[in-house]
Amino acid sequence: MGSATPSAPRGRQVGSPARAFRSGRASRPPSRPPRGRGARLLYERARNAWDRPLTAYYLILGSSLLITVLGLVMVYSASMIKALELSLPGSYFFRKQFLAAAIGAVLLLLASRMPVKLHRALAYPLLVGTVFLMVLVQIPGIGRSVNGNQNWLAIAGPFQLQPSEFGKLALILWGADLLARKQDKRLLTQWKHLLVPLVPITFLLLGLIMLGGDMGTAIILAAILFGLLWLAGAPTRLFAGVLGVATLVGFMLIRTNENRMSRLECIGAIDLGPKGECWQAVHGIYALASGGWFGSGLGASVEKWGQLPEPHTDFIFAIAGEELGLAGTLSVLALFAALGYAGIRVAGRTEDSFVRYAAGGVTTWITVQAVVNIGAVLGLLPIAGVPLPLFSYGGSALLPSMFAVGLLIAFAREDPAAKAALAMRSPGVRWKTMRRRVKKRPSGER
Q1: How far apart are CA 201 and CA 209, in angstroms?
Q2: Partners of 149 in the beta sheet?
Q3: How many angstroms separate the CA atoms of 144 and 122, rounded?
Q4: What are the tens digits of pLDDT across the range 162-185?
Q5: Range 135-139, long-range pairs (CB < 8 A, 24+ positions)
Q6: CA angle 318, 323, 327 (to 5 degrees)
Q7: Phi and psi at residue 13, in whole multiples of 5°?
Q8: How far apart are CA 413 and CA 265, in angstroms?
Q9: How far apart are CA 51 and CA 17, in angstroms?
Q10: What's residue 22's pLDDT?
């Protein structure tokens, strides 16, 4: 008998092509997702990516760095003509801003790596030091006046310091520490503990600022106060009362000053005025209007040639609109919106009361100041004389702002889920995880 090839068993053949053909599965075309399911799937993926633990961390880091870098480019472009008018090198203001940005980057890195306890420990020394410097500003012969405001201290050579900019950061850290300690003792339900000493100390800072005539910085400081009270859960009557008193005082300060009244009257102005009092506001609109969709190109601004005052400080957004167009200005707005959203997310997801108050205060500071500056350039708000955070020229404004961004980064890293995600991305943890996954080969000969 010859050997025959063993036949395959007649049992069930799951992968048999003939069986698949008989069942009709081979000829059936692949099923398509229902209409609208693809968009829904894309939405779900984007939502899952948006809800990841490190989303706020990357938004804060990325948006702040992009704003700072773009600000350096615009400072160089907007300040060249002003520097040449002062018989200075064309890159004079850019070099000073770049130096401030480099120092600010170090401060940002330090703040992002410092523990929360150390941030709280800095609150009182920073507040006391800021108040001392703001008192020195008002002493004749020590303080300096710039554009009619007595709020500067000479450091060395061309470098000057504006202590009121550091007062914003000091108020946030001190106020957050104060409210957190009172919340731990359950004292914030009493209106006296909610207001004292937070409101008196804030009024002290506001008084020192207003002695120098800086109404814009006073507005931002008042906004920080209201932000802290809102986060602390102040009753509506109490909140409305403090807001009403601040509004009344602000109206009296504006009413009794001719320069401030003229700024208020220039809201939405399209005419220079009989004495040219709306010159800056109108030329800011001219710069934005001439930018078009994509701008005239970097360095090609016309308004910076002596037409628009303060092109590299308070009105740098107008120059950005002229040179980068609507696309550039919308990009800047989107970056500030991303930074604001990330700050709100950090404040809303934490269980640490100090982190919530400090993150909310920093977010209030940056977003309100950006709204006040951009609103003035667009002619929707009076010109307050405040720089665009992280964007305008000025080391005194850039340094505390970058430290504040470092605070937000540190708080985003303190989230338990974000901390675990960052730990898994470190090289040591990844290498240990890979080693655990590798199976040991049995020893011995084959």
Answers
A1: 13
A2: 146
A3: 28
A4: 999 999 999 999 999 999 999 999
A5: 135/208, 136/163, 137/163, 137/164, 137/208, 137/212, 138/208, 138/211, 138/212
A6: 85
A7: -105, 105
A8: 46
A9: 45
A10: 46
Please give the angle made by the CA atoms of 402, 379 and 303, to the nearest 5 degrees.
80
- Do residues 27 and 296 touch, judged by C-beta distance below 8 A? no
> pLDDT at residue 17 above 70?
no
d(CA 398, CA 401): 5
Check pLDDT > 50 for residue 446: no
Angle, helix 353-377 to helix 279-289, in steps of 10 degrees: 90
Q: 386: how many CB neighbours lie within 10 A of its CB?
A: 24
CB 119 within 8 A of CB 107: no
Q: Which two tokens stand for residue 343?
A: 């700050």
Distance CA 308, CA 325 (A): 17
The Cα–Cα gap between 245 and 393 comes to 33
Residues 6+ apart with CB under 8 A from 130: 163, 166, 167, 170, 205
Report DSSP letters for 17-67, one per residue: HHHHHHHT-SSSPPPPPPTTHHHHHHHHHHHHHHTSTTHHHHHHHHHHHHH
Query: Quick one: tokens of 111?
Result: 């703040």
Q: What is the rounded distance in angstroms from the CA atom of residue 144 to the CA atom of residue 148?
A: 10
Q: What mean pLDDT comes out for the span 348-363? A: 95
- Confirm if 220 and 205 have CB atoms less than 8 A apart: no
Residue 14 tokens, joined: 């799951």
Q: How far apart are CA 148 and CA 5, in angstroms?
A: 105
Q: What is the distance between the alpha carbons of residues 165 and 397, in angstroms, rounded to a whole number?
A: 6
Place of tokens 């104060």: 178
Tell me, what's the pLDDT at 274?
A: 81
In this prediction, residue 3 carries a pLDDT of 46
CA-to-CA distance for 218 and 210, rounded, in angstroms? 7
Rounded Cα distance, 99 and 220, in Å? 26
* Angle subtended by helix axes 395-414 and 316-349, to nearest 10: 30
- Kindly report the length of the chain: 446
pTM recorded for the entire structure = 0.85
| Tens digit of each residue's pLDDT (9 = 90 or more) over 258-269 | 888 888 889 988
CB 60 within 8 A of CB 343: yes
Taking the C-alpha atoms of residue 239 and residue 255, their distance in angstroms, rounded to an integer, is 24
pLDDT in tens, 24-36: 444 555 555 555 6
